[in-house]
Amino acid sequence: MSPLYSTAFVDINPIQTEPPASDEENITCYPRHSANVVESLNILRQKLPSELVLGILEFAEYWVSSVISREESVGYSPRDCHDPTPYLTSEPIQGEGFPVRKIRINIWSCDVGWSSHSEDHGTTRNSWTWFDLGIERPPGRDDICEGENLHLMTNLLAAREITHHRIMYHRNQNLRWMQNLQPGDRISIVPMARFRGSRNTVKKASIEVYTSPLL
What we know:
- The chain is mainly β.
- The chain is built from three helices and nine strands, in the order E-H-H-E-E-E-E-E-E-H-E-E.
- Strands 1-2-9-4-7 form a five-stranded antiparallel beta sheet, with no helix packed on it.
- The longest helix has 11 residues, at about 35-45.
- The chain is elongated, with a radius of gyration of 20 Å.
């Protein structure tokens, strides 16, 4: 089966109209793109100081979001991970300067390998299937991965049931790699497996990158 990809641009805090209950597809979400943010800035600046307006928009998390998802069941053995291949890669980051404010990652996966540590089943102890965060940059840019902890999450050992894992990164965490993401960079979900008998099965995943067009 060929992989299914979908992309969309949405807002973390949508402002919704009040459509009839049977007409939910007509809901409008803002900001739909960076022009909405700039327009809101200019409207508010007519009544408030620019510094206060910038603080309000930042506090409200009025950011543009790029969302990409994939739903396809894929299993990764240790051999597959000798040359790690991302399961999902984001769209290139948009904006100027260092625009990333928040990253939300969702992974549905499980460990379906063999394990003799029955006492650890259902925990992350002795689990050797996990996910790392990948960062792809255009040629000529510095390596912002060196020395960074890019571990996303570890599967529950021999759980076999699909588990939904949620990972969130926020700019105020002061993560060097995140603060240095620039337009054109991409992030990815990289499945990993180690030791014979381990198998990392991914059912689906999504990446949401929230950026501010305001410097």
